[in-house]
Fold:
Amino acid sequence: MIIRALLIVSTIWIAWYFLSSRGTSRSNAFKKVLLVGFVIAAVVAVLFPESLTAFAHLVGVGRGTDLLVYALAQVAAFQMFNTYAKDKDNQRQIVHLARRIAMLEAAMKKKPESETGSALENHIPPPGSLE
Structure:
């Protein structure tokens, strides 16, 4: 059946997409295009429900409702991978910031009290030096 192949391919593609390209403007643009496509498809499905059933029959699904459930499962997987990837990015950023703070505090403790005011300016590592 066509629907089985489509579901498998889309699931693998979603996983590959979110594991390979994170944080690019290209991925953000793609999400916007998907959103517009979703809105158009939703409006068409609401205005012409028989078209959803006809499309479902075309791809090998018995009812339009079943096709909608399959699509919802794919959207949920898309959202799950997107949230996971964002969480990983946030964790990486928190670790980076914590390391920078630790280095700044260590640099401030090394300086005598008379120079503490300038310790921050003199010992801030350049961005990206901790990666």
